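Annex B, item 7. Sequence and structure tokens for protein A, then protein B.
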Amino acid sequence: MIIDHRTYDFHPGKLKGWIDVYREYGLPVQQKHLGRLIGFFTTEVGPINQIVFMWAYENMGDREQRRAAMDKDPDWAKFREKTGPLGALKQQTNKILAPTDFSPIQ
């Protein structure tokens, strides 16, 4: 298993609007295609105006196939059309994490 760990940095005052659109349009499409959401968080201490979310995949091939299918979904295009005009996202950082043999999440 691998974890796709994503951190999105938002312009001040734009986070809540993006989350509202994501909840309604983005999350259902991602749950349909990506599968196992490990967590979705906002930062309270440290860098503010951030969202961190993590998706579990069997391996990199599984991730690539699932994300490719999502990219072809018209509902994903609708989500992107809704979030683009918000001008909310400043930066995105992705990491792929692999659990150790003693990690509680496998």
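Protein B:
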Amino acid sequence: MKSGIKKTNRITKFATRSENSNKWFVVDAEGKILGRLASEVAKRIRGKYNPQYTPNADTGDWVVVLNADKIKIADKRAEQKVYLTHSLYPGGQKKRTFTEMMQKHPDRVIRLAVKRMLPKTKLGNKLINKLKVYSGTEHPHSAQNPAVLEL
């Protein structure tokens, strides 16, 4: 051993399923900006606020988003933002603007924004199921006693 260098045994601590305390949070999306809301929700679902955060493990919390139909985005941006889908048939591509999506499926707008901020892996597919989005103020998750999350 060289002089002045002391060898220590360092053990990296990884989060386990039993240590993870899944909390439930409710977010009111009324008057919030889409991207800023989605990034905060994605961080909460991923578990980045948790001291036991482990990048390759599910340490996040459950989030319920209410009033998805009252989310805001810049007026000019609402016509520029386009959602593409494809039916896997020739000529099956459909384009919908933000305003069309808000009229038909306002919950999908927030879900897509959050999903695209999560990792594109099996873990990301598992984490997106921790997001519950509703257009109104009512939700069926009152039994979990969700805490109000102010963003």
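Comment on protein B: The mean pLDDT is 91.
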